[in-house]
Amino acid sequence: MAFEGLADRLQKTLQRVRGKGKVTEADVKEMMREVRLALLEADVNFKVVKDFVKRVSERAVGQEVLQSLTPGQHVVKVVQEELTALMGGEQSKIAVSNRPPTVIMMVGLQGAGKTTTTGKLANLLRKKYNRKPLLVAADIYRPAAIKQLQTLGKQLDMPVFSLGDQVSPVEIAKQAIQHAKDEHLDYVLIDTAGRLHIDEGLMEELEQIKELSKPDEIFLVVDAMTGQDAVNVAQSFNDQLGLTGAVLTKLDGDTRGGAALSIRAVTNTPIKFVGLGEKLDAFEPFHPERMASRILGMGDVLTLIEKAQETVDQEKAKELEQKLRNASFTLDDFLDQLSQVKKMGPLGDILKMMPGANKIKGLNDLQIDDKQIAHVEAIIQSMTKQEKIQPDIINSSRRKRIAKGSGRPVQEINRLLKQFEEMKKMMKMMGGAQKGKKKGFKFP
Ligand code: GDP
Predict the structure, then answer these.
(1) Where is the SRP54-type proteins GTP-binding domain (predicted)?
(2) Which residue blocks in 326-436 are alpha helix, DSSP H?
(3) Which of 65, 62, 64, 33 minimizes the C-alpha distance to 49?
């Protein structure tokens, strides 16, 4: 996952001031040295780092912090706000043309993930906004590109417009837009050609497509793993073509996150979406504020809630919340919950969005596969009704019986019971935190 190193270092640095009732200039200086190093190590553009540190320092030794009741926490808040601002502040929306179709040009270097992203974006437009997109195969140079887009179209059950590789991309774009009008499709996503490097020919072709298709958005698809190179690519494309947004792909494999933190500041192009895997649904709108919170270990509860809302049965969720509140959560509920969570995606990724999750040791190596979940299911299903409600009664002979019934070793049963106990404890604590919420900005 992105930002691992940076998150770790920033959190450690901020930890030192977090609880402080007084933050001196020397504290800030020392802290800013660490922050600077952490950002540079994350491959953030050095000029961006310099400006960032300057802004945070000014605010952190200023009146704003001194007059605060909790200066330590206030400094953390300043860092969070400035990180958010660095990445563009508000989440930027995708354009909607009032004369449909809305045309989006997808541009980028070869291998950045342009074709895949075109499919992902079309998928999101349909799923989230109920739109009807047309995929346009305008990359006539890479032999497999047209085929790849057609395969994606089939997978998504979405129309793909192609005229083969003998017609110019400009002509393809023109006919595609007409086709979308005729068919009442409201988005046209043009998958343009990529090259290994930026070259004149490519830019000229893109300019011609732009001239003709008057796109509402020009999205640059860049590979986050290429770090500062991604920033340079964004700069060139923006200078020559004028971008309206960037899509950062492969953030799942980029542990440093430098590109995400620099692109907006260097090129003034907002990051609109991020790609987090090869699958078509591994794609999210980019929310600067939520990303900043994730980096600082405050979790990303909003994304978590959204994910849950998309997949989890709302009735059940309400019921569960009630049970958590009055601590009547049983192993049966646990099992139920497990299957709901399973639908939301890899458990490790989900847990990472929870505030304070970075403090749970070993989370990064956490691999929960379906087999393990099946084992847990087998264990819980081998318990009696009473045992599931009141696990305290599970003594050693009962444990042996459950082990036999589920075909799992006794140690595994012990471990599960212990985890369940811990979880209940945590929920009680979270219940307490809920009550204290009114006191103001709360950090984990
Ligand atoms: P194009 O040449 O820019 O059109 O690139 P492709 O769409 O063919 O993608 C190149 C490779 O990157 C493919 O193997 C994709 O599956 C992969 N890819 C694209 N986006 C992501 C992403 O967000 N995460 C990961 N891990 N792989 C990605």
Answers:
(1) 270-283
(2) 331-344, 347-351, 370-381, 385-389, 396-406, 410-435
(3) 33
Return phi, psi of residue 237, to 5°: -60, -40
Evaluate if residue 364 carries a pLDDT over 60. no
Residue 440 is predicted with a pLDDT of 33
* 109 marked among binding-site residues: yes
Question: Which residue spans within 166-278 are E strands per DSSP?
Answer: 187-191, 217-223, 245-249, 271-275
412 or 16, which is more confident? 412
Residue 203 Cα, ligand 1 centroid: separation in angstroms?
A: 22
pLDDT band at 365 (very low <50, low <70, confident <90, very high): low
Contact 42, 6 (CB under 8 A): yes
Helix (H, G, I), strand (E, B) or coil at 28: helix
Distance 273 CA to ligand 1 centre (A): 14
Distance 210 CA to ligand 1 centre (A): 24
Report whether pLDDT(127) > 60: yes
Whether residue 431 is predicted with pLDDT greater than 70 in this model: the reply is no
- Across the range 303-308, mean pLDDT stands at 66
What is each CA distance from 89 to 153, 222, 286, 401, 441, in whole angstroms?
Answer: 34, 20, 11, 57, 19
Q: Which of 124, 149, 197, 278 should be mutated for ligand 1, with most atoms under 8 A from CB?
A: 278
Over pLDDT 70: what percentage of the chain?
81
Average the pLDDT over 427-444 and give the result: 46
- On the question of pLDDT at 442 being above 50, the answer is no
Whole-number Å distance, alpha carbon 277 to ligand 1 midpoint, is 8
Q: How far apart are CA 60 and CA 79, in angstroms?
A: 9
Nearest residue to 433 (alpha-carbon basis) of 442, 424, 420: 442
